[in-house]
Amino acid sequence: MENQAPVVQLKTNKGLLKTILLSLITFGIYGLVVMSAVSNDINVVASRYDGKKTMHFCLLFFLVAPFTLGIGAIVWIHRISNRIGNEIKRRGINYSFSAADFWLWGVLGSFIIVGPFVYMHKLFKAVNLMNADFNEKG
Questions:
Q1: For the chain, does the N or the C end have fewer beta carbons within 10 angstroms?
Q2: Does the pTM exceed 0.90?
Q3: Dist. CA 27–CA 93, nearest whole Å
Q4: What confidence score (pLDDT) does residue 3 get?
């Protein structure tokens, strides 16, 4: 059977500047929507290949992270970063992304203030590339 484009097309327009500006205007709601889309997208694209299911971002944000004092969020970000990176490698996309980006840019990079923004840019670019490949090949 030949690869066919899926019926559902995933969005490939996630961007850092747009997310920051619209999150400010909507008091953070847009950021929740974007990260929820990221958690849904990785499940749609990768679950049939890796057999995993990433927890929905809203469940993490409203229940798990507060009750684990943020540790659940760190584990979730580490895992989703690795999962997206693995799917990008599996699809043969020439882009480097993994949990190392989270730890280097998101955590250590916070000391230079711009690090978390670099991490989010890399995350959105990785998801956009993954979604574009999925939209084309399934």
A1: N
A2: yes
A3: 35
A4: 63
